[in-house]
Write a structure and sequence with these properties.
The chain has one domain (7-477): Penicillin V Acylase, Chain A, CATH 3.60.60.10. The chain is globular. It has an eight-stranded antiparallel β-sheet, with helices on one face. It has 478 residues and is an alpha+beta fold. The chain has helices spanning 7-20, 132-140, 144-158, 222-228, 234-237, 242-246, 249-252, 255-268, 291-298, 344-347, 381-387, 395-398, 404-415, 418-438, 440-453, 458-477, and strands spanning 27-31, 41-48, 56-60, 63-64, 70-72, 78-80, 84-85, 88-92, 101-104, 109-114, 160-170, 175-183, 185-191, 196-199, 216-218, 282-283, 330-338, 348-353, 363-366. The protein contains 16 helices and 19 strands.
Amino acid sequence: MKIRIFIPLISILIAISTSAQDHFDCFSIVVGSAASSDGSIMLAHNEDDWGDRIVNWYKVPDGQNKAGETITLKNGAEMERPLKTWSYIWLEMPEMEFSDSYMNEWGVTIVSDACLSREDEPDLTDGGIGYWLRRAMAEQAKSARQAVKIGGALVEKYGYSSSGRTYVIADSKEGWMLSVVNGKHWVAQRIPDHQVAIIPNYYTITRVNLGDTMNFYGSKDIVDYAIKRKWYDPKNDGVFNFRKVYSDPGNLSNMGNIVRHLSALNTISEKQYYMDDELPFSFEPKDQVDLRILFKILRNHNEGTPFDQWQRDTLSSPHEHGRAICSSTTQYGFVAQLRNNMPREIAYVMWLAPFRPCVHPFTQWYFGMDEMPDGFAEDTYRDALEHHWETIDNVFEYAPRNKFLKFVKHAKTFDENYANQIVAWDKQIRDYENNYIKKQETFENSMTALIKGKPDKIGKSLSDYCRKQLEGALEMIE
């Protein structure tokens, strides 16, 4: 029998879990190439963090480092720099250690979701690695698989400096989840081409087969260490399950995580899941997944489910009630559309909602654009790292002219009368997105011709096209 929890009890449980796991609201979906409507790999992500924030947008060129050159990690460890670094789009959130996102020139796209582990005796070398882990992968990897190997090697060398996390990594051919544990243990699993994987803020990798190197990587002692710590007993516990063995138990039962996982899963899956079900690492969708479905999920407030707590007849907004995929802590959302059958300049697209996906349209950023739109960064990319850890007491005073804050202010104002505006507004932003989705193929055909005939013009043409979309979004909110 499936458990259907009485609605007031759900509200209580979500409220309790909200206070127990504040600010862990990030959310990701990976869609395999055979599961998507256009044959692309898709990675959808909402980045959630506490407080008022800005997001600086940079396009970092490729670079060279001197042999033996090192950088000092946040906690003191020295890490050698690679001789060559790739170009990448960098979404930077000042002050934050685990919030930046990357897409590099090979389409390798990296985001993360905090996952609390049970590790209380972490093995760290010189303080371990945290912030630089995903940046190192973005700078060096030509594929998602290579990024996993790079990340795993760095965790084994330095140790991971936070409780735990899953890095969601995709390119145009594969999607992976790299789950790291405080200290020097990690596992990674590939998402099958014909399936979809969803992760809120708990580990989702279960059974691990390190002998299957097409689909798994990880620490060689991942099982032996768990036995040593008495977390896992092969005789009594059955098959080793990474999720159950290494997770903080409270994290797995956190209602905010379960609710968000179920809301997305039941939107895409043919099979419907319930509270007492063991949710799958990955699954086959009922229909091929397209951009619009992923946009819809990143905007989700549990509408139409037993977890919907929004009182629509009041002046409140859905962001004030419990945990949802689109929440009061969401700082930006995007869908990476990664194709392998066209020139790299246009093959990798980041459809980005600048602040809150439910009230801001997703606009296209082609990797081949030569510069980011003006007014969305406080530093140059060269200075950003130097200032990244500076304390910001008031983001509106720190960056009064940053255009990103226009979206922040708009969302806050919109929340004051959300119920009376959202139906008409939702149609307006979806019409805006659909216009660009419909003409994507025609535009990309013209850019393919430009690459063949006038390749030196492609960067500016893509920048102009992306800037036009963002300017349109700004005009909608002003």
